[in-house]
Amino acid sequence: MSRPLPAHVIAVAAVGGLVLSDAVRFGLAPPGLVVLLVTLGGVAALVPQPARLVLAAALVATAGWAWGSARLAALDHSPLSSHADEANWLAVTVTSEPRVGRFDQRLFGRARRFGDLMVDERVELELPLGRAPPQGARIRALAVLRLPRRAQPGGGFDERIWLRRQGIHVVLHVDEWRMVGRRGGLGGVADRLRAWLRRASAPGLRGERRAVVEGIVLGDDRGLSPGLKTAFRRSGLYHLLAVSGQNVVLIAGGVLGLVLLLGLPRIVGHLGALAAIGAYVLAVGPQASVIRAAVAGAAVSIAWIAGRERDGWHVLLLAAVVLLAWSPYALFDPGFQLSFAAVAAIFVLVPHLVEVLEGYPLPTSVRLTAAVSAACGLATAPVLAFRFGAVPILGVVANALVEPVVGALLGLALVAAAVDPLSPAVAETLAWFDGWIAAYVAACARLVAWLPFAQLRGASALAAAAGPLLLTAYAWRRWRRT
Fold first, then answer.
1. Domain for residue 1, yes or no?
2. Among 168-172, 340-344, 422-426, which stretch is predicted with the lowest mean pLDDT?
3. Are 212 and 339 part of one and the same domain?
4. Do both 173 and 217 map to the same domain?
5. Where among 51, 76, 101 does a domain terminate?
6. Are residues 333 and 382 in the same domain?
7. How far apart are CA 395 and CA 388, in angstroms?
8. Scanning 102, 214, 227, 408, which has its CA 20 to 30 A from the CA of 463?
């Protein structure tokens, strides 16, 4: 393993400081923090180079610790919590689409007013089944404030902890509501982009095929039936329903290729790619995998514009800094853990797995797909076992079946969305072909999920997670020696 670069050390220090804030809140007041940082910075400027890097890392880690503590304090602050069990009129801006359950539907929002009290706090709305306000709506609602439910004495899901880590401390049980407008600004732009992409990426499609296309393009599984969701989980294909680097690469690459075909300078293409990545993040929302992929994609274009090489580990660490700086609670999010574990496994395990597969009579693309799928499956198995109690073990087979067509599905959906305003008929034709690909992906998920032992659960899943941990440790040791 080559010696870590100073940028790696500084990024690791920032991540370490932000993670530390989850365990221990920073205790110094702002004046004391300023004195500490100035002292560390002054000493770092005077000492020789090796010690200077250590002190710089300590300075960055301290700043990250203080910043993370301040962010956690802001996320934990809730003026509405003191009004639990009270009923009143609220002014709320809806910030998500509804999640429909068996007995109710839930949405995220930001409360602006509770009776005569002016607030600015994230909330969850609980509505009866039926009509729901659209994302971006500003509503006036009559609701009862409740504290989220805690886990039962025997264990289970703790809604209060889950919502707290998202900065939400009260649930609004809405009795009646009416829409009074729509939000503007960047949030309004995001609402329009998402609505356009949902509508135009699959024109003319209905039912399951449309739901699969929307799930892969937008990272949204709400339209899938419970049975198909289970099939995606059991087969190891559920990662397709979380926006990944493949989506971002396709969008950025498409914009860059179009600019080059038009004969415009390459810098215009990279600037256009940055704009397209930003628009896509706004449309699909700030999921952990989206932000990580967006940071990586943006780093490629920024590195080219700046004339510098891109380093994968540095980009991965930078993405972690961005997410943890926004919310140190992201560390506990399964999406964060799965996304970063998978990418780190690609860096560490894939080269060795490709070497192992070189002796087999398989096309290069199949060997690479199998290596990436196996690496990601091994790295994410412990997370899946401990967080969900289930590990898919046939993910390599399922991914080998669908990987060749996922890029085409994404490409057709995005081209259809771009063409739809100009020629709806052409867009519908593209979506028709895309629907067949979506049907194939769903059939593969069901086929693999139907096979015996497609998924291990309970104690078997925990036992299966031990093997990947040992193999990852072995691969890490070999990687350090290279």
1. no
2. 340-344
3. yes
4. no
5. 76
6. yes
7. 16
8. 227
Q: How far apart are CA 227 and CA 230, in angstroms?
A: 5
Per the CB < 8 A criterion, the answer to whether 6 and 53 are in contact is yes
pLDDT at 139: 93
Give DSSP secondary structure letters for 109-128. Answer: EEEEEETTEEEEEEEEEEEE
Residue type, 413: A
Nearest to 233 by CA among 245, 244, 241, 222: 241
**CA–CA dist 278, 294 (Å, integer):** 8
CA distance 345 to 379: 6
Q: What's the pLDDT score for residue 1?
A: 43
Nearest C-alpha neighbor of 255 from the set 377, 140, 418: 418
Q: CA angle, 285 as apex, 217 and 392 as ends, to 5°?
A: 60
Question: What per-residue confidence (pLDDT) applies to 130?
Answer: 84
> Per the structure, how many domains does the chain have?
3
Which of 258, 448, 244, 452 has its CA nearest to residue 343? 244
| Domain match, 167 and 38 both | no
d(CA 335, CA 20): 20
pLDDT tens for each residue of 6-31? 788 888 999 999 999 998 887 666 66
Q: Which among 127, 161, 183 is the end of a domain?
A: 183
Q: Are 85 and 145 in contact (CB under 8 A)?
A: yes
315 domain-assigned: yes
Report the distance separating Cα 127 and Cα 125, nearest Å: 6
More confident site: 81 or 252 = 81
**How far, in Å, are 3, 94, 285, 372, 374 from residue 480 at the CA level?**
10, 49, 36, 20, 21
User: Using one digit for the tens of pLDDT, what is the confidence trace for 114-153?
Assistant: 988 999 999 999 999 888 899 999 999 999 999 998 877 6
Are 162 and 258 in the same domain? no
Task: Examine the domain organization and report whether 23 and 69 are in the same domain.
Answer: yes
Q: Mean pLDDT, to the nearest integer, of 349-373?
A: 79
pLDDT at residue 87 greater than cutoff 80: yes
**Could you tell me if 262 and 357 lie in one domain?**
yes
Say if residues 91 and 137 touch (Cβ distance below 8 Å). Answer: no
Q: Which domain holds residue 70?
A: 6-76
* Cα within 13 Å of Cα(455), Cβ side: 24
pLDDT of residue 182: 93
Residue 144, φ and ψ in degrees, nearest 5: -105, 130
Which residues, in sequence order, are CB contacts of 369 under 8 Å at separation 6+?
399, 400, 403, 404
Q: Give residues with Cβ within 8 angstroms of 96, minimum separation 6.
A: 107, 108, 109, 135, 285
How far apart, in whole angstroms, are the C-alpha atoms of residue 145 and residue 84?
A: 5
Instruction: With respect to residue 205, please indicate whether it lies within any of the assigned structural domains.
Output: yes
Instruction: Calculate the average pLDDT of the chain.
Output: 83
